[in-house]
Amino acid sequence: MVFFFAQSLSILEMARSVSRIFSGFRCFGSLPFGNTQLKTQCPSVLFRTTSERTVVQVLPSIFSRKPRDFSLPNSSWGEEMMRLYNYYNSQSEEATEGQEDHGEQWTRLPSYNRSLKYATGGVYLSKIIQSKARLFTRNIRDPGAAFEYVVFFRQDKQRCVCVFQAGHLLEGPPGHVHGGAIATMIDTVTGTHASLLSAPVMTANLNINYRSPIPLGSTVLIESTLDKEEGKKKFILCSVTSTDGSRVHTEATALFVSISISHLLRG
Amino acid sequence: MVFFFAQSLSILEMARSVSRIFSGFRCFGSLPFGNTQLKTQCPSVLFRTTSERTVVQVLPSIFSRKPRDFSLPNSSWGEEMMRLYNYYNSQSEEATEGQEDHGEQWTRLPSYNRSLKYATGGVYLSKIIQSKARLFTRNIRDPGAAFEYVVFFRQDKQRCVCVFQAGHLLEGPPGHVHGGAIATMIDTVTGTHASLLSAPVMTANLNINYRSPIPLGSTVLIESTLDKEEGKKKFILCSVTSTDGSRVHTEATALFVSISISHLLRG
After folding, report:
1. Could you state, in chain order, the average pLDDT of each consecutive group of 10 residues for chain A (267 residues)?
2. Window B:201-240, CB contacts with A under 8 Å
3. Nearest CB partner across the interface for A264, out of B116, B171, B173
4. B176 at A interface, C-beta within 8 A
């Protein structure tokens, strides 16, 4: 619904989002595949752009421990899930092994189950952090039971692809994935895509056409492409298909609107 | 997505659906608030209408133990959730305490976490039952952690109302409910509504407009009304509002299509 920041972004992106809150939403750059560069200087975390230099006061206490990246393979991933992960990941690995990245490679987006678990302090944070809160798509730790997915992004084509393996706890009709679970993944992938363009964004509309049911346990591809941008609006197209593309399970359009953080405070 | 039978219907309705599978989809009547009467005769379970009397052959082995009805209050339900539950439930209780029910009262719909857990046998069942599968909206047993909801139906007005308390595991943006979780509840309530008209139905389209975010832990009202029926198509309108109706969180339209069981087998 609201993507305060892309829910699959890296810990650096988390920190960047936190820093926005405390700095009046100044832009500190973006992910490595963005238009600007994001660099860090430890031990205190420092965001530096070419034109400004800002120490983020709250960051020294932000990282309590390394979070689990749910987008990495685990023992529950089936053969098809692993095959597709390796396919896209091998292309993104190439980018880091020498060639300069001009957005022509896939980039795997890490995925965590707590929005701001690793941040502390601040009046605003104390309002929005609930110690037990977990990201809806990562709220079950049992591998393979619910949402197993990994999102890759390719900047030059403005395209995201998500490999999604549906676990047994996502049941709607007997033996098949709940329509709400499919909507959840569509919201997640398109929302992640939109937030890479300009976070934070809010889902304004999801229009989903269900074509054929998805059996529990199966692996499918969820692809999102940027349709157009109009001011603060980002229109995204999305499809859910079998991994060979022969069967269309779901098609959707999504509209996201860039918002200010204050929108959430009015929530 | 596909509502094989209404996911919040009673164990009797489950049995009726199972019996359909084994009997070539004969109609054994419907729920007490349907157009026909449904009665039982034990020890073997019997469905009787005023004009016909039918023993359901598969039922003696169906009930292994009494399932948990997730639509009943538990310790996690907050004050507002309990107030609204009591409000609607008191009206439905009146219906059972004497007055003949002409659909002018609310009827609480029970809710279970396994579609066909309590049924055994049959070639078709062996294909669709996975022992670990759980209904997506009831897959977490920890009270208050995820989806706490109860659906009431009023036949004379063709209207469903759902009291929904959003738990901490449904997080999308920090402190707020994930758009996919909201879509899931909309699919659930409208799908339940459509299936009361003619199960089984399949979600063909969900068109969701998100107006304002829902804070985690809050209780909201989800209301669905029948817009129109055109042959196999059922058009349902849905809104998610604050409990006093002053704030619209989400508005949606849903289209469901009546299907045959074979649709799922092709899934």
Report:
1. 43 39 27 29 31 32 66 91 91 58 77 59 43 89 92 90 94 90 98 89 96 92 96 97 96 94 57
2. 202-210, 212-217
3. B173
4. yes
Range of weakest confidence among B163-167, B250-254, B257-261: B257-261
Residue A185 CA to residue A8 CA, distance in Å, equals: 12
**CA–CA distances in Å: residue A254 to residues A226, A263, B47, B53, B67:** 10, 19, 46, 50, 38
In angstroms, the first-to-last Cα distance of chain B is: 12
Mind listing the pLDDT tens digit for each residue in A97-126? 445 556 678 888 888 877 654 333 333 443
Interface membership of A182 toward B (CB under 8 Å) = yes
- The CA distance from B256 to the nearest CA of chain A, in Å, is 10
Ordered by start, the domain boundaries in chain A are 2-8+64-266
Q: Per the CB < 8 Å rule, is B180 touching A137?
A: yes
Residues B64-266, CATH architecture: Roll (3.10)
Query: What tokens appear for A211 in the block?
Result: 């074509």
Q: Which site among A76, A137, A206 would you substitute to test the B interface, given the most B Cβ atoms closer than 10 Å to its Cβ?
A: A206
Please tell me whether the interface predicted TM-score (ipTM) of this complex is above 0.90.
no
Residue B262, both tokens? 């074979």
Out of B128, B184, B187, the one facing A174 most closely (by C-beta) is B128
Q: Residue A121 corresponds to which amino acid?
A: G
CATH number of A2-8+64-266: 3.10.129.10
Q: Which CA distances in Å does B156 have to A94, A108, B14, B178, B199?
A: 63, 53, 23, 33, 19
The residue annotated as part of the active site, out of B69, B142, B156, B187, is B187
